[in-house]
Fold each of these.
Amino acid sequence: MRVATLSSFDASVAQLQRRQQDLSTAQERLTSGKRVLRASDDPAAAGTAERALAAESRAVSRQRALEASRNAMLLAEDALGEAGELMQQVREQIVAAGNGSYTDAERQLAAASLRSLRDDLLAVANRQDGSGRFIFGGQGSGGLPLVDAPGGVIYAATAGQMQAATGEATALSVDGRAAFLQAPDPANPGASISLFDVIDQVATALETPNQTAAQIATAVSTGIGQVDIVADNLSSWRAETGHALNRIDAVEDRLAQSKLDAQRERSGAEDLDMLSAISDFQNQQTGYDAALKTYSIVQRMSLFDYVK
Amino acid sequence: MSGSTLMMLGIKAMAANYAALQTTGHNIANANVEGYSRQRAELSTAAGQYTGAGFFGKGVDVTTVTRAHDQFLTREASSARSLASMDATRLALLQRMENIFQPGVNGLGHAATQLMDAMSDLSSHPADPATRRVVLARATDLAARFSEAGSALDLTQANATADLRVMVTEVNALARSIAQTNQKIAEVVGRGQPANDLLDERDRLISQLSDKVQVTRMDASDGTTAVFMAGGQRLVLGSTATELSVVQDATDPRRAAVALREGPLTRVLSETEMGGGGITGLLRFQNQDLVAGRNLIGQLAAAIGGAVNTQQMRGVNLQPPLGSVPSSALFGIGAPEALANTANARDGAGNLMASIQLTVTDPAALQASDYDLREDPAVPGTWRLTRLSDGWATTVADGDVVDGVQIDFVGAPQAGDKFLLQPVARAANTMSVLLGNPLDLAAASPLVASTSPANVGTASVASLTITAGPLPVPGATVQVTFTSDAGDYSWQMLDAANNVLASGNDSWVAGQAIPPAGTDINGFSLMLHGVPRNGDVVTIAPTPASALSSNNGNALALTALRDAAIAGGHTATDQWALALSDVGVRVQSGATASEISTAVSRQAELLRSADAGVNLDEEAARLIQFQQSYQAAAKVLQVAQSIFDSLLSTAAR
């Protein structure tokens, strides 16, 4: 077959251009470290990488939500622990006030210290986290969740627990009503006892002058029994937050794992295998070099060189 | 026989070889001219002169100059070039469109993910103004990315239309040049010799024309060539050329179409009528790829925007007075459009007799497609809706809902009317954020569910989902009281003064919602953990105004949208990944098609030029060959002269 000079030049130039283009694509991939720079490089891998990116991003945002939950549960555990200690002091105070040798004045002093412990407990129940959220605010509260009202302490927030967006059951708050105001009464199913009412009642009984020893003994023993019930309720809520913290640790592991999986999946889908890429690049380099050499040799040959 | 005979012989041989040398020189001179056909001086032996001693040769004659030309190979190269040019044009445009579908952190998908992440942060800190502002910023970013993508697609369309105008102008100029060349050829063809260079010129023009649009040619006996488009429309006949023009598409005025001027009329040409060439590639991109790209982006915009808006309107914002300002939509989304064909029936005043009104009823059901609506030819009087992305068709009547869109007829459509329905094509273009105040974000739920402290069962609230915004009976409290250990319950809806507004009974099964799917009490769906016992009570009450600022119920629901099937049966992320793959596959297959057709075209051109092109080595050899012949002929002349000189010197004595 004849070869037209023009088309043989054109074909060689086109071939050189193609090799140069391949070389520049390979270089672009090597410098970016990515195999998939555009969707058309590998449509299926681009889709996978996109899903993995979203999964990674979701895991990170869930980790942030989880930290908020952890923070809330740590503070709640601290607060419930503190409340437990205060209840211990309340109990000791009541036991002491039951001493038959106490005068009215001594009982009044005991009542006063009970009331001060009660105020400490109320402050603990209304504690906030760093961002102004009430730890015992339930499903939302505008101001203090537990407030003094004429009939005793009432729950001004919405009962229940707020959840964090971690994809699992992780709480952002503790139900202050259940923890402080509604300890289930074992003797009376369906009924409940308020921590503050118990202290109020004992304090009021101790403040009342001229009582018989029997009256005081009854008030004290009833009070101690009820204090034990509400203290148990506090420690069961404390255990609950401890469980929640354990669960948060487990969720954190799962989130870290799914973040890692997502990163690995994304990298597998779109990242370049450097070893084979470098070897491909060298292949292409050799090819381009050979093409240039043959071009310069073949195209230099002409019969005109020999016609003298 | 005389001495002058030998001289004549030498002169003729010299002339013939000189002509051959001249032709070779012409070949060498034109070696790099594209489309030039190698020429050749055709020599023939002059008829001999009869004498008593037999025939004596009278040398050589130049009969004509021919060009190496194979009609089949030329035609083949032209049509291969047409297809290559079509594929290359489409690929270039597709690659431009692919830039709008960026993968990774620069893409639309990631912007949507970031909005959802911000919603998650909002659910952790519902009262924090900074977090609320971040949500608005992310939403603004997402809307801007969508509207930028819409504008970029508009720009691609505008560029395509401009390119089309340029190409059509070139086609018209080429057709005119072919007609003029036809005329010149016809003028010289009468002289009996082929006008090689003019023929080359015409072949070259036709080949350039093939770049733009596929043509077939038919040679006439007068030397002219008629050029037809692939669909048989006449482009050039003799010395007259027909004009093409760019017009608005009859179904979608934003698109361009190519029309042929036939006398006083213009007729719009379809893609198939043009067969190949850059114009066809461009129209194919415009009518298929760009439409698909637009709908993919639009579907996502309408679906994400619609889902976020619906959920936002179900929640409670923090605008004062708390709890009494209705929440409004976060995103503004481009409205669906129904375009009437320009040929649709009009009344006396020139107004359309009928139009179509589209309303999105379910953003999650929207499909990434345009729809064609026209009378069903099989059943006159009924209207057939065809989904253009996959050809699925159904019969619709006024008010029907298809793929999340309600179709209303305004006026009575006439027989022969056609409409192009675009539910999502323009959704991204005008996407915007409508809320400016962080307090407008509805992070709080309008209802909260709580179990009674007196409950004896283990049931607790797993989730409370709001299914209507605003609630059917705002401010009402619903009390669910279990009436057996088997999950039977009765419910009462109470107003603020504890009057019973409604009541009913149902049964709860573990893992199912209260009320059961498909029924409604007051726009909520409650899920329980654990097991309720007889007498247990769950109360679903309005969230108190004081609790709204720290409640995160609706922020959680907004966050949950990232895992919900909100876009055509997929999550937004999956739908975006699908869109990305769809465009990727289009570019990839476009590149493969272009690679193949370019290789075919190169091969065809190689074959054509192998026959018709100039090989310089060959010409060098011919140069030596004819030079030697010329020198030999000169020698003959010298001999003839020296014979004559001998004769003269003999006679001079």
Amino acid sequence: MKVIITAFVFSLVTLQAFALSLLTVTVNSEVANYSLDDLETMPQVTFITTNAFVDGPVEFSGPLLRDVLERSDLLDIENVQVTALNDYSIEFPVSDALDFDVIIATRMDGELISVRDKGPLWIMYPVTGNPELEDPIYKSRMIWQLKEILAE
Amino acid sequence: MRSPLVYLRWTVFFVLVAGLISVAFSLAVMRSKIDTIDDGSINGPVWMVMSLEYDLFRFELALADFILEKTDATAVNLRFDLLWSRVATVRSGETAQLLQDYKAPSEVFEQLHMTLEETDAEVTHIEEANPLELNQLAIRFGSHSEALHNATLSVLQENSIRTKALRDELLYISQINSLTSIAVAVFLLLILLLYVIESIQTKRQLKEKDGLLEQAHAANIAKSQFISVINHELRTPLTSVVGAISLVKSDALGKISPKARSVLELADRNCEQLSALITDLLDVDKFDANRVEYQFSELNLSSFLREQAKINSTYAQEFGVAIVADPDMPDLTVWADARRLGQVTSNLLSNAAKFSTRGETIKINLTQQGENAVFSVADNGRGIPEAEQARIFDRFHQVDSSNERERGGTGLGLSIVRSVVEAHGGRVTLTSVLGEGTTFFVELPLHARSDSTQE
């Protein structure tokens, strides 16, 4: 009985964790919240790539950044302000999301990504197979610990 | 002869190209050097160590706020996790390598990492810690600040050393580049100068050539005029000579003896030959000056050739030679000037007659070959040596001059033949075997019998 209750409570906690807002997309102070669940129910893209912050090729999966931007009708603007958990913030060119299959990675090698591993959300470019993405400029746009997308 | 200027020009040109290549090369090197300027970038070593210092500071701040009960455990844990991820970043992959290159003491990051691992459980359950433990935790993380700050300073120092080295290098490259550019400019001027000198020379040479050409042209005109005058001056007296001879021959001036008649006949024949020579000379001159007018019309080639065989037979008989046109010649029509084409056939036939042995026959034939009508004149004469064949169409050329004179001939006939045939859009060729005979082939385009061209 105790086990069942524990399992139930645990599942509630887990459910809550999945329902927690991880990403806010703010357009002219209109806020859209995305939980892990929201992001994972969107069409998923998976690719294996290397980058400067991981050792060897790693499989990343998650929704396309352009799908998320499209939901807030952000595909026509030039830049969005992207902010991370550690308050790191840059201007992100929307064209990148259109030109490449840039994803908001929610999983690394199939596992959810912890904050310690630069999660829970990590903007990821398919560097492997796109040599032009090896330019250092793209390294700076792979925002880890993504928290917020802002547009005016 | 090539002037030394040409060699000089090429030398200068190659030096110029080499200079431009070296400029391009050094610009490329410069570009790649500039690409390595990485200090301020988001993934550069300076940024990395400073961010680490900042993240440690933010964690310490969160911890202090927690001790003062200004914030909750979740915030502390978030800062802890962020610090953890930052430490992981500087310890792994490209970043670790880069920091090592920039002489960042890696043991500082290792020690911080150990502290994180050792305090992980404590921070995760921080709400259970007592004030003393919290203080110790704060002191423990605080002890890393100085070492981390020193690491940042050493990275900064290394960065400034590198930047200076890079700047010096770029300065050196740009100096080299400026010098090369000046050299290139000088050589460019030199090559320009060479071109000017050469063009002056060329102009002078061209002027000389023009003068020579003018002289040659004037000589040619003089020659033509000379021929015309000679023709005229020859023909006029010749006409009166012929007239006089025929008058005497007709017994109008009294009966003449048979002996005298035969002498007159000889004189008459020679006059005829002289007249033919003059006509040929005039024709050649006309062909030269492109003053020949053609009157083209539809011409039935087979009946034309039969008629020509008949006309020229009299002449051939003098050499004891018969002319036979093939009775089965096909009915072919060409677009031709009958009078000029008659010149072609009579030249070819008289040549054939002259070179044939007595009793032989000259054969005329006609065939169709594709879009062309080809008629041939074949004799069984002594043939033309292969070496001569190419030259027989040249004016005044004769195969064996000593013998020719006996037979009588100007050496102009075949030249006229070629001019006329080419004016008809055709061509004349021959095959000849020494001792067996010669066949001339005249190729003329067939006249399209379609009504559209006729109307």
Amino acid sequence: MNILIVDDHAMVRETIISLLRAATDWEIVSFESGQDFVSNWDGAGDCVLLDARMPIVSGWDVLHHLQRRDAAIPVILMSGHLDDVNDTNTTYPNLKAFLAKPFSGKTLINTIHEHIT
Amino acid sequence: MEGTRRFTAFIRNLTEQKQLEARLLEGERQFAHLSRLRILGELASGIAHELNQPLNAISVLSSLAEMTDDPAELKQALLKIGTFTDRAGELIKHFRNLSSANEQARSPSNINELIQRAVQFLDNEITHHGVSLEFRLAPDLPELEIVPIEIEQITLNLVQNALEAMADQSTPCICITTEHNSENLTVSVTNSGAVELDDNIFEAFKTTKSNGLGIGLTVCRSNIENHGGRIWLEPQPDNTTFRFSLPLSL
């Protein structure tokens, strides 16, 4: 399985990469911002772990971008803001789950298993 | 009388005057504290966001530490947990200092570092409102003997005001500049909002906000003047700049 991580906080991005590489045999590709993802994603992958709040191009903007591209890739949205859970400002059909930060590594892996594999 | 020296002495009781001065000083300190608490209340969501990042990293790393059989990987995870715990601790310590009601001491400080540390608390607001933030910080600023949290409070106030002034703009931007000459160090906060303002805005209880108390800029001016500096407004047709300068020899 190929997992994409989009988060502007390096410490979050790198710790998720370390965890998934240690605990699974999944391929991991990371993007350091929403802009980086929108500009450089080649359309491949099985799941996007997407931070909701990023500068310039937010997670919500990325969801709009995916919808405009008619992408079908499943997305798990990550955020520390409870308001984001109830944000209905997206109609992207493949938004599978919301992970409230801080979450544990086990919760992350279980969520991916539950919704993607 | 011959051979006798006479002296006239005037004794004035200053107790009341000293007590009044002390009360005024205490009132000013409480005013500044109230203003800081108000800003911190508005920043609560940003502070939670900043704390969430190291907490999330710690939580994920502890899962990794639990799962791994590799001693090197375990050690690495524990080291990182220590680093991120320190980072979270620093944030809390900094927040505690900002909210403290105690009188703060002057210490040699780099204004660029204080500005960047203060703006960190507004990162979330800046991101959420799609604001483009630019720093033009002079690399060779001399250290000044100042009260660090007062300068941070001024920065927070000016940037927070700038964010509110640009609420309706489609491409809002803020530029923070530091520079110095042989006598003064100057900090400018420019935003792309053009609001009708004049120097009265520094008077207490003057505000353009519907929910504002009008004390933020008054405290800014008081803090700057306590450092021997001055603060002023430079409105332009398409932007607004608040500038303050501090003497290099305080």
